[in-house]
Amino acid sequence: MNSPARAAALWAGICAVAVGGILPAAATERRPAAPPAGVEEAVEQMVADGFPGVVAYARRGEGESRTAAGLADTATGERARPDQRFRIASNTKSFVSTVLLQLEGEGRLSLDDSVDTWLPGVVRGNGNDGTVITVRKLLNHTSGIYDPTNEPEFFAPYLERHDRDYVYTPREVIARAVRHEPTGRAYSNTNYLLAGLVIEAVTQRSAPSEIHRRIIAPLGLKDTSFPVTDPRIHGPHLHGYDLEGNDVTRFSPSYDWTAGAMISTVGDLARFHRALFTGTLLRPAQQRELLTTVQFPDDEQYGLGVRLMDVTCGSGPGGKVIRAWVTDGAGPGFTSVSLTTADGERQLVLAGNVFDLGAHLKKTRPFPLTHALEKARTAVVCD
What we know:
By secondary structure, the chain is α+β, with helices and mostly antiparallel strands. Helix content is about 30%, strand content about 20%. It is built from 14 helices and 14 strands. The strands form 3 sheets. Strands 1, 2, 3, 4, 9, 10, 11, 12, 13 and 14 form a 10-stranded mixed β-sheet that branches. Strands 5-8 form a two-stranded antiparallel ribbon. A two-stranded antiparallel ribbon has the order 6-7. α2 (about 40-50) packs antiparallel against α14 and α3 (about 90-105) packs antiparallel against α12 (about 285-290). The longest helix is centred in the middle third of the chain and has 15 residues, at about 190-205.
C-alpha cells in the first residue's frame, strides 16, 4: 500500500545453506541489551496516542533489544509481545528485489531485460509497452504502470461486501492496471506483481517458494511466511485494527502477493535486512544495483525495493547527517518501518497494529497521529 510520499508520512506523521553461491548471514553472537534511551518511551507513547499495540527491535552494534507495549488483542486483553507476527505489507518488496538480483548474479536474467522478454504480451495496450519497460524499472518504480490498488472500487469486495476472503490473482490486478494509460514515474504495486511473475518465468517455481528457498530458510527466519490466499495469521500474532477499533486481522493477502503479502516479526525483519544491507545476500555488482537510487518528484530516493533516508542528528553546526536504508509497510490493520544505517551498525524495526484502509482510500490519515516514531529513530541512530 505504500508510496514514497506515504512512506515519508509514516516517519513524520506517526512522527547455513549456500544458495546460488551466496552464503547466509553468519550466526554471530549478539548480546541482549537495554533498549536505547527513548525507544521504550516512544513505543509507550505510540500506544498512548492510539495504537492498541506496538512492538520494536533495536540494535546498536552487537547489542540488540526487543520491546513491546499495549495490546495484541483488544477483545481478550492479550498483551503485545515482540515475538508476535504481523503483516509486513510493502516490506515484502525488498525480499522480491533480492531474489531478482540473485538471479542476475547467477546470469539467469539481466535487469535490462524487458518485461516482454519474460512475460510476452502481458504489458500491452493503452500506451503500456512491455518491450521498453525493463526489470530494473519495475524494481525502482520508474515503469509508469498504473496502480489499481489506489482505487476504492478495487477494494469493494472487502470493504463493501465484507468478503475478507476474496481472492484476486496477480494477473487480474495487472490486467486492471494496463487498462489505464501510464502514469509517469510513480510508486506502483503493479510493478512488484510483475516482478513476481518474472521470478516464476525465470525459475519455473512459485515466487513464494523461491523467497523461502533463497532467503527465509537460509537465514532461519522461522516466523516469516508468505501466504498467497490464506486470510489468517497463524501462530502468535498481533491483531490488526482500523481507526474505529474494528478487528481487520482476517484479510486475504492475494491482491498484494509479491507487492506485500508476507508475514514476519520485528526480529526476523531485522535479521533479513542486516544480511541484505551488509552484503551477505548479494554479489558486489548486484549490491551496487540494490543501492543505486532514482529521484522521485517528492525528493524520495528509491533503490531496488529499498529507500534512502538521511537522518539528521542534532541541529546547528554540531549536527550531522547519517545515511540509512529504509523499507516500510502499510496495509489493513498494520503499519511498520525498518531502518538500517548505511554502515549496517544500527537498526530499528517497529510495528503498530492500526492501518485504516478505508481512510487511506479517502486520502485521510489512516493511523493515529503521533510523533513518537521519530523519537525512536533518533534514539537508535543518533549518539
